[in-house]
Structures are given as C-alpha cells and as structure tokens.
Amino acid sequence: MDIYDRLFGDNNEYYNDTGKPKYMDGNYFKQFHYGFISEREQARKKKGKCIIPDCTDRCVSSHTIPESAVLKRVAQENEVLYPEYNAQLKIYECKPINIKKASAFPGFCVQHESMFSGFEINGDFEDPSIALQNLRIVYRYLFGLSSLTKVFKRKLAAYKKEITDYKMQRFSEVKHLLKKGLTLTNVDDEISLHLKSQIEKLENQYAYIHNEDLVPLVNTLSGEDSSISMYTVHLDCEVPMCLAGKSEFKSGDKKYTVHLSIFPRAGKTFCCFSLPKLYEEDFIRSLIKHSTDIGFLNVIESWMVYGTDFWYINPIEWNSYSKEKQNKIMTLLKSTDHFPDEELDFTIFDNLRATLLAKAEEDLTQKK
C-alpha cells in the first residue's frame, strides 16, 4: 500500500468516506452542535466591557425593559412568560422566566446604565430620558450579534485546529518514508465553510444595524441631525404584556426598520416608536387607522406576532387563552411573510377588549 492509500484511500485506518477523521461521526457532531448551543447561552450572559464606544468600564446586567416599573406589573409571583425558539424542534414555546432575568443582557456599565434611571426606577414615562429607551434596544441587538459572532469564531478556530493537528500527526507518522516532507495547505471542509459563511452574515448584520440604526439614532439624540423620528402613544388601558423590539415595514419596494417599546403602567400603556424620518409619513398613515384604544390593540397584537418575539406576557392572561389561540400565536411567530401593519385574522387581548367595551357602554349610558 502506498502512502496516499494508507492515509486517504478507501478503507484507510484514519479517515471516513467524507474525508474527516474516523472519530468525527454522528455522535461527534451531535456534541459539537450542543456544545455550540451551550457556548452561545454562556456568551449571552458573559460580562465584559460596557457596550458604549470608548467606555472601558465593566458592564452590569441591564434590563432592556425596566424590571421594577414594567416587568413587575406584568408578572405573576415575579414570573412572566415569553416565546423561546426551540432550534431542535424548530418551534416557538412559551416559557416562564423570573423578572430578574427577563430582558436582561450584560450591556452597560453602572454609569451608562444610569442614563435610563429617570423613567426606569419610578416608571415616569414623561421623563426626558425615555427618549433613550429605544437606543438600548439597538444596543441589545448589537450585543447579541457580537457575542454570537465570537462564539462562531471560537468554534471555527477550534475545529480547524483539531483537523490540522490530526492531519499533522498522520503526516508525522509517515515522514520517514518520504524524501520530502508533506505541506498542509488547506483544511477547509463544508463545516468550516459553513461557519465562515455564518460569521460573514453576522458581521454584515452588525454593520448594517450599526450604520443604519445606531448612528442615526445617536446623532438624533445628540442633536447632531434629525434623521430619526420618535412618536409616543398613550393608551387609557393597561395591556397585560410588555415589549421591546424592532420590525421591518414596507414602503413601496423598500423596507425600513421601526423600533418599539410597549410599557404598561397603572391603568395605562405607553408606546414609543422610533423610525427613519424618511418614512415618517408612510408610518403615520398606518397608525392613524387605529385612533381608539381598542383599535390600537390591533397594532400591539400584530407586533406580537408579525413584529418581534421579544415580549413578555402575564401568565394568568396567557393561560386564559385557548390552546388553539396559543398554538396559533406560536406558529405565526415563525412567519417572515408578514409585516406588523397587517391585522391578524384573530384577536389576542379579548379580556381587555371586553373591559374597554363595557366601559364605553357605561360612559354612553351616563351621557344619556
């Protein structure tokens, strides 16, 4: 048997029929997959430097949605429910989470976290600092992309080193049979190429959010320009959920991003939108169709399903829904063919609607 056959030929003792080391079987890649998931979850919690550029202070755990002012109002015994994507089953599942962990990410240092204290601690959504709320939504997305990219890069480096070390060991075992040594030029395979592709996608997404969302919003908040428009909506009813996310909207053949925070408080609900000023008129036209509190519930419900999965709901409220409604919400969350300015063909907050309708009838009766 010549050297090539011994190393790479059919039925050789070192490599399988895919060209990978024989120990890289189904169990190996199963562990590889679950190892990645574990690293990804750890990366989401790892505290490093503050996410604010040029700040070197260590970050703390930051809530994208205020814990005491908002999450506590939505919670039942300090727990809320949220949609979690099960990558293995490829479905959304509604899971419980403690409000200390809900919406938390290691983003800002103590000093920069204090930027949000004006509205976060007391729930004063009239405080000027509320203008910064959607800024931390943008930073949360950037943190998520950055941490995930680091995991992919670590997995790629580790995988390529493992392949390289294995091949070099095989080379060393036969070098005495060669007049000249063997040179290893490339160890890329479909696994490493897939990891590289994912890294490139994540880096492109990061660059897009940084350039199209973060920079314009920071410049607008600082008064440098006014490329971002902000709108607030106050409802005279308390929605049993909270939300802090983004979604795409269509304007002709173009798309634009809208960030939204929905914060319930005593008997009311505060909504804060931010979007590119260029598409302000299009967006306003979609909002003015829903001028009443009951009508605006349609907007919130569409955001829950067609907009973002970054929301938390009161457990008692969720459990009051039929299994059919629960399953429909979880199933539609996977849809990428709809935008949140499209109304659902069903309603979600039926309990709140009934209360609003009863109040409207009572007010009408009193006027008579």
Put simply, the count of helices is 12
- Low-pLDDT parts are none
Task: List the helices and strands in order.
Answer: HHEHEEEHHHHEEEEHHEHHH
Side by side, the strands of the main sheet go: 5-8-7-6-9
Category by helix and strand content: alpha+beta
Give average pLDDT, whole number. Answer: 90
User: What best-fitting shape do the alpha-carbon axes yield?
Assistant: elongated
Largest sheet: 5 strands, antiparallel
Rg value: 26 Å
What is the share of helical residues?
A: 40-55%
Determine the N-to-C terminus distance: 102 Å
Strand percentage: 15-25%
Q: Let me know the number of strands.
A: 9
Relevant terms:
12 helices; alpha+beta; elongated; two-stranded antiparallel sheet
Question: Helices and strands in order, then pairings?
Answer:
Blueprint: H1 3-8, H2 26-45, E1 61-63, H3 67-74, E2 79-86, E3 91-98, E4 104-106, H4 110-113, H5 117-120, H6 133-174, H7 190-222, E5 228-235, E6 241-251, E7 254-265, E8 268-276, H8 280-287, H9 293-307, E9 311-313, H10 315-319, H11 323-332, H12 350-367
Antiparallel strand pairs: 1-4, 2-3, 5-8, 6-7, 6-9, 7-8
Helix pairs in contact: 2-6, 6-7
What does this structure look like?
It is a single chain. The strands form 3 sheets. A 5-stranded antiparallel beta sheet has the order 5-8-7-6-9, sandwiched between helices. Strands 1-4 form a two-stranded antiparallel sheet. A two-stranded antiparallel ribbon has the order 2-3. The protein is an alpha+beta fold. 47% of the residues lie in helices and 18% in strands. It is built from 12 helices and 9 strands. The relative contact order is 0.11.
